[in-house]
Each structure stands twice: as structure tokens, then as C-alpha cells.
Amino acid sequence: MSHKNRFDIKNHQVTMKAIVTTGNGGYEKLEYRDVPLPKLNTGEVLLQVLAAGINNTEINTRLGWYSSKVTTSTDALTAKEKEMQEASVQGDGGWNEATPFPFIQGTDCCGRVIAVAPGTDENIIGSRVLVRACIRSIDWTSLENIWMASDFDGAFAQFVKVPATEVFPVDCGWSDAELGTIPCAYGTAENMLHRAKVKKDEHVLIAGASGGVGSAAVQLAKRRGAFVTAIAGETKLEKVQAIGADNVIARDRNIVKFLGEKSVDVVVDNVAGKNFGWMLKVLKRGGRFVSSGAIAGPLVALDMRDFYLKDLTLIGCTAWDEPVFPNLVSYIENNEINPLLAKTYPLNQIVDAQKEFIQKKHVGKFVLIPPSISDLDQFRR
After folding, report:
1. Whole-structure pTM over 0.85, yes or no?
2. pLDDT band, residue 75 (cuts 50/70/90)
3. Contact in structure between 180 and 52 (CB atoms under 8 Å)
4. Exposed e or buried b per residue across 177-186, where buried means at least 16 C-beta atoms within 10 angstroms of its C-beta
């Protein structure tokens, strides 16, 4: 079946509800429809999706923000149809190669294993699991990676198939929606702290601390015993402090004047934009700057003197390291972190959810809940 027609339900007896993203563009590119149930290949498992978190990356991919043609913030891009069209023509709006439109997005998945491919351990059937969305496509010695919901179909559906190696059973009292907040945001945040080797008593500055990744980073840095200064919007400072930040600074305040030069050991940033230069000024000699995004704008002014005269280390983070996801599962099971669930929406209300999401008035994560299914037998192999 051609890529274009692979969601055709003709001759398919078993179907499911899903959000199909048909191309680069606005909300009109999100279609709630019936699609064929995924067919398992060797080494794969079929999950009933219980909850699927919303992330910047799904919106960025739909907009084509990762394209080299795009130079604005994600918020600004939503109003720039011309740049979206250029990204579509360029074909580089996804994380790796061209985004495989039409496809199903949804990077965060809490699910239940209902079937496994022949030869796969059947003992996992029935387990509630989290999916490691970032897959090392060669092995752990290579940084080459692919992502669920960017390179192949994700969790904005009633069911999703994933490699058996990427599902992690979780034994905890959290709700499905609470677990649905974890994979992308917490995985990204933990990977940044792991790569930057954040240690006890270090001063960590976290930009965008009210967002999914930022709020996760606050909790995870505190878990490591760091002193955390968090940057967020003025109206969110109390909430950010309530999740563990030792110090809070309103966004757009001059952090150099507030903190002083050479006052911070590690900067954790997925914002970038116009305040990037301040981040380097506050780092101590030998400090580390770790980044996983650039929602305020991908092009920044870098004063190379701050970089080399202070012996700084700049760390880019996309591929997750091997310990990251098992660590997160252990933190959950040992009650070392808490879920930050802002709101849930039914799957078919994804447009309303994303519209509210991009207003950035919340702290934590939005989660989509697919329609429930009373009889799973028809979906089992």
C-alpha cells in the first residue's frame, strides 16, 4: 500500500480511532478518523493507548518548525503560513528525514500490552507500560536515533505498535493520565541532567521552568540535590516554586543583574531566543550549558569570548542515553518524583487541547484520553 493510502480502511475488518496528521499546516491537518489496526512485525507489541501526552514537538512537526527555512519561535510560526509552506516544500520539517505524512503523532504513551508478535515474550501481556519514545536506531554506541510520532506512528490513537524493547512496565498508584505526562518531558529532562552530570549542591538554572520539560527538570534536579533557580512567566512563579524551585525569576528579567556573573554551574535550557547571551554570562568558569530545544527562537547571538574564555561546555541533547528511561521508571516506583498533570482532553478534542496548550498558561502537561474499548478480544492476535 502506498504511503498516501496506508490509512485506507477498505478490506480491513478491524479499525481504530486515531488522529491522522496529513501534512504541514494548521489545525485543519488534524483528522479524527477510522484507520486500520496496526499489524505487528517481528519483535513488536500492540498497546491499547490509555493516555497520550501533548508536547511542543507534535505542534512543531505539524508546523514544519524543524525546517532550516524556519527562523522564528514556535508561537510566531503559527501565524506564518508562508514559512509553513516553505517547510513543506523543503521536506525537512521533521526531526530526521522528511516527516512521513500522513501519519499518527503522539510521543507520550501510557498503554497496556494486549498482544505480542510471535516469538516475543508473552508474559508482558496485560502489563501497564510506558513507551521509551527515543530509540537508538543502530545501538547504544551510536547517537543515531528515531522517535515515535516523528519517524513512525505514535499514540494519538486507540492502539499503537512499538518495539518490545521500548516498553517498560510500571508498578505504581499513578493514574493512566498521570503516567501519560512522563515519557517525552521527563525523558528529555533526565537526559539533559544526566549528560550535564548535575551533582548535589550545584547551582542549576532552568529556563522555561513552567513547561513540560522545564517543570520535569526542576523536580529531577532537586532529586539530585541541586540548588535550582527557575525562570518562568510572572503568573507561574508560585507554582514553579511549589514544585521545588529554590529561587524563581520572572521571564525577561535580566538574570545577570539578578544572579550575577559566574554564579551558576549548569544551565538547562529548551527556550533559547533573545536571552541566550545572558545564560552564558551567568555560568561559572567550566560551566555547562545543556539544551534540548529553542521554542523562543532557534537563532541566537553567541559571544564566542564567553564560550572559550570561560572554558564552557555546550551540550546538545536529542538522543536519550541508555540509563535515562530505566531511571525514570525507578523514580516513579520509589515515589521520588510527582506527576504534573495540568488537564485532560478526549482524543477527539485535540484541536482544543493544542490551542490551549500554545497559550502557555498552564504548568505541567496536557494529556489526551482515547475512547475506551469494552471488548478487546477482537484486537488480540
Report:
1. yes
2. low
3. yes
4. bbbbbbbbbb
